[in-house]
Amino acid sequence: MSPSPNSTVVAHSDFLGRHARVGSWQELSEGTFRTARKRLAAGDGDAAADLLEVSLQEADELRDIYERWPGEIAEWIVGRGVDIAAVEVKLDRLAALIGNKAMGGIQAEWPEYHEATMHAVRRCRVGDEDAADLIDLAHQIWLGIHDRAVDRVAGHIDIAVTLCGEDVLGDLWDFLMADWYDLHEKRFALSNQPWEVSAHQLMVAIVDGFHAHLVGGERQGDIEVIEESDRIGFRFAPCGSGGRMLDAEVTGGAPRSAAPFDFATTSRRHDWAWNEIGVCSYCVHCCLLNVVMPIDRLGFPTRVIEPPLWSGRSASTACTWWVYRDPSLIPESVYHKVGRTPQKPGGRT
User: Fold this and answer.
1) CA angle, corner 332, sides to 278 and 210, nearest 5?
2) 279: left (phi > 0), else alpha (psi -120 to 50), else beta?
3) Beta strand pairing status for 319-324 and 304-306?
């Protein structure tokens, strides 16, 4: 279906504290760059420009954490008593694998993406014939920057596992996400706001964040939305970040969990990784932030995740996030999967 010209595509979000996309879940399931190009083709250059400006906001959180996390991970490793020389040896190896441009960090590349996007914005607003090509160019620039930044972060996490052991991975992510834990707990507590409000906000955050990760086989940010009687699902096939560790199709046949990268996946069962073998070290943070920590602090998971697993073979992957219409509908098996019980929230079985 063609978009309706001049319909609203962007509005201020009190939850996010900035402008964000608006529409039905099916409309929001389509990637932002793809939607911008469709709006432009429908003759609504202003809507296309608004969407491109929002794409910068969607990516900005990633710019922040992907710039900070590598340095924080290296400091955390040294803080555990690892000789800095050993860390530097591993960093040299990582640089040889992913390249110096990736090791330079996302902030160094951000001005190029910002300028390309704003150039496309200006051309969309005046209706220049090259505007569609400029949207595509901005998308391709962000895709390269994003993927290099993911490689850098995931490579640092792999170094932590290599030098400190797999068992510390949960502690590392607890350290990196401590502020997120506190904000998550405060906002989504049932004593703070009704679950109906929380569920909506949790879903808004999913589509907003995963547009920036450029999920989907075409890397446009397209999400499959699944509506069921008790829950709504968001499927990324694959995710653009953790999926990059496991999926051959979006990595030119070089998933980062395979040689020559060999980024670590879980070899044993851990509560903080769904008690599954083959969870990539990057994906662990999704389990902790959405399942383990909320159960421990709130008494229920805020989002239930079915992660992709590494089997040692290159294969396409998918990751599905579920938001339940009421926490009481979440099956007990979800708690047991992470070593918890709903009868005693936060208690280990």
Assistant:
1) 50
2) beta
3) antiparallel
**DSSP assignment of 249-264:** TTTTT--TTSTTT---
Q: Is the pTM of this model over 0.85?
A: yes
d(CA 130, CA 244): 31
For the record, the structure tokens of 168 come out as 């510390």
pLDDT digits (tens, 9 = 90+) for 108-130: 999 999 999 999 999 999 999 99
Residue 314 is predicted with a pLDDT of: 57
What is the torsion angle, in degrees rounded to the nearest 10, for the CA atoms of residue 234, residue 304, residue 251 and residue 258?
-160
Angle between helices 32-41 and 131-164 (to 10 degrees): 180
Torsion of CA 346, 283, 273, 198, to 10 degrees: 20
* φ and ψ at residue 241, rounded to 5 degrees: -110, -75
What tens digit of pLDDT does each residue of 253-304 get? 999 999 999 999 999 999 999 999 999 999 999 999 999 999 999 999 999 9
What six digits make up the tokens of 213?
A: 């990760």
